[in-house]
Structure formats: structure tokens, C-alpha cells
Amino acid sequence: MIFQQPEETNDNILSLHFDQELTGGDTESKRRLELEKLLYNEVTTLPSLPVMFEAIQKILNKQSQMGFLYINIVQYSMLEQIYGWRKFDFFMRELASTLVDIRNRLMREHDSICEVMLKGSTFMMLLSPSRTKRLIVREDLARLCERIGSEFNEALRDRITNEVFEKLGCYFGYAILEDDTTQRLERLVYNAIEEAHQASINHQQRDVKRRSDALRSIVRHKKIRTVYQPILDFEEKRVLGYEALNRGPAGEFENPDFLFRVAYESNAVWALDRLCRQQAFKGIRKMQNGHRIFINVEPHTFEDPQFFTKDTLEIMSAAGVKPEQVVLELTERRAIEDFDSFKKILQAFKNSGFKVAIDDLGAGYSGLQMLSELLPDYIDYIKIDMSLIRNISNHELKQKIISFILKLTSDIPTSMIVEGIENRDELTTIRRLGVRFAQGFLFAQPGSVFPQVDPEFFDHN
């Protein structure tokens, strides 16, 4: 049963509760609106599967079979936790719009799209009958599924940020629905959906294995390179240090977020993080004395017995880098579950001279908790994500947030670093607010050789 029958009424299965004071046309209008909310997703405007049953039955009556594609969006619910419901709704609208555009561009006019469950993560493309009335060939459906899946991922990547796209997994399956007058239509449909869902899971598993094998090859052959971006100190008019940014081979693995997403899937985070540190330290031999080196670190890798191996320490020593010059940037890719144990580990590193920073505050779901748990004793720097800086010159709330964090850190031994400065308006605004440390493309693009900074930036007001 799709809708639950209200106990106090004898109306049919689509009956709904309404305000008893509403009468006549108001009641009927209200009923239609409430019914639409149950049958159509108000965010994507797509119908739910029950709306399509009549159309499905007509196709089966005419041709005795039909094909459909099944789209499974995995990890989508995490987006709402990270970005909030407004941006999440935007992502879902873009996703649905991408499907509709592909239908209009690549498929037949009467092919239709629906959601398996409203506000869910699964969609269906129902294929209209063939004009030739020939039977559906499974191999043809498989090729269509692969083509639509490829087109969908490429089109969606152009609609949303790479940061969001890399957090999603979009997997396609397909099935052929055969008419069987001995079974209810609903049962036939849901059995076919289960078959298509399993096909999408198989697609996902193949994709995970392909990525896992590729990542292990990258780690084994040390195909990680490091580029460096300067961090400016406006008060002392010098470069405070450089952030080491790791890149994989050209293609999807070049993006570090994608690299570590696959590493988590493949249980290879420690190995990848260890290699990234080693490659970063190998490249800092040309760094001037007194500069700090900021190294991104996954919080979970602090539990790695080989977190700072003898080999890594020897590389640091050969480069002339002391622990006091190293800042460990804690990423937000995964939440910290046991802060008490984590604090003990951090303290041991701080006792050895290492500095600690919270990276990308404002971008992930765990930053504020990390801030409240670790300030002021364990954190030397707070790095503000570029999302809070973009267009800050015209955004009063963002300016207030930066001012608040500056005030928060003014009485404790923790400094704020602003990331992602791309234009002079942003630079002017953060300097007016009193920001001392910043980095971004405006000052220098990341490079394999430590980039030089134009001295005029230090005098910018």
C-alpha cells in the first residue's frame, strides 16, 4: 500500500487529512495540492513510480515487454549533512535536470523519468515501445545503459562543483519488464527494479575494484607529485611558509579529494598518506631556512604505527627541515570519533616540536566540532576554507564570520590563515578585517619549485 488509510474516514486509498474548517473549492484545491506533494517531488518536479503504473500497463498491453534504466546515487545523503538542505536541494534539482536534458537529447520523445521513491536516491528511465515492435535485446539495453551513464556523469560534472561531484557515486543498471497476467503489475515492476538495482550494485563493485587497483598501482610506483603554494604574513611582510599539495597522475586521480576517497574505499589511506608526506618532504630541499611547511594529514593516519617512519624522518633531516618547521594540517574528510585518544597523540607530536592546523574550516561537517574540542591547547593555526572567502567583499555575513574567528583567536596562541584569495577585492576586504596570514592564486599558483611572491602584495591595504 502506497498511502496509509486514515482511521477516522472511509474515503479511498488516496484520502488525506485536511483542515476541517476548509470547505467547498478550498478543500478540493487543498486536496489536489497535498496529493501532488505525495506523488511528485516538489524539488525535482519528477513523478514517483506509482504515477507511472498506468503508462507501464499500457505499454505492456501493447508490446508485452518494456525496458528501463535504473540510476542509483550513492553517498548522496552525506551532502545534506555537509552543505545544508538548501544546497542539497539545488544539487538534487541539477541532478534531475541533467537526466531530463539527456532524455531530451539522446532518447525518444515518449521515454519518461520518475523517482523510485520521493526524496530518495534512485531514478528510473522508462523506455517507450519500439516503433518496429521487435523484442528488446538485452545487449542493446546494456549498451544504451553504458552510453547514458557516461553522458550523465560527464554532463553532471559540468553542472556542479568538482568537490561535490567527487563525493557522489552515480551507477546505472537496467532490466526488461515482461508482462505476466498471473502476477500483479506492482509485483512485476518491483521485481524488475530489484534486478536493475542489483545490476547497478555490480556496476559499483566493478568501478570500486577498478579504482582500487589503479590506486594501489599509484602507491606502489610512487606516482604522486607535490606542488607548493606560499602563505603570506602581512605583518612581517614575508612568506610564512608553503603548503604542500599532492597530485596524482593526470586524469581523475589528479584530484586529491578523489585520491583519498578511493583510498578510504580501498583501505589504503595509511599507505597513500605516508607516500604523500614522503613526496612532500623530498621536494623541500630548496626551501629557505625559517619557512614552515604545511603538510595535509588525515586524522585517522595518526593511528598508523608508521605515521612518521625512520625513512620519513631521514628525508626531513636530509632536507634540513626540523619538526618545529612542520605544520600538520588536519583534513575534514572523515570525522574524529575518539577525541580523548586523538588529543594524546597530538600532544606527543607537539611535544616533539610539530605544529598543528585545522584545514578548510567551513567546508566540511566536522570542522566546528574539531575546533571546539581542540582549541586552544592543540591547534596552532586555523585555515579558513575558500568557500567563506569567495565574494567576501560583497558578503556582510562572511565578513562577520571572519571577524568572529579573528576575535576568537586573538586571546589564544592560535592564528588564522585565509585560503583561496583570488582577486584584489578579496585581499582588500580581509586586510581591512585584520587578517594577517593568507594564501591563494592571486599571490602565486602552486608550483613544483617554490613560487616567488611579488613584494607589492605585502603593502596592499
TrEMBL record:
Q: Per its record, what are the GO molecular function terms? A: cyclic-guanylate-specific phosphodiesterase activity
Q: Which residues form a coiled coil?
A: none
Sorted alphabetically, which SUPFAM superfamilies does this protein's record hold? EAL domain-like, Nucleotide cyclase
Q: Which Pfam families match?
A: EAL
Where is each EAL domain found?
208-460
Protein name from the UniProt record: EAL domain-containing protein
- What species is given as this protein's source? Candidatus Auribacter fodinae
Q: What is the lineage of its organism?
A: Bacteria, Pseudomonadati, Candidatus Auribacterota, Candidatus Auribacteria, Candidatus Auribacterales
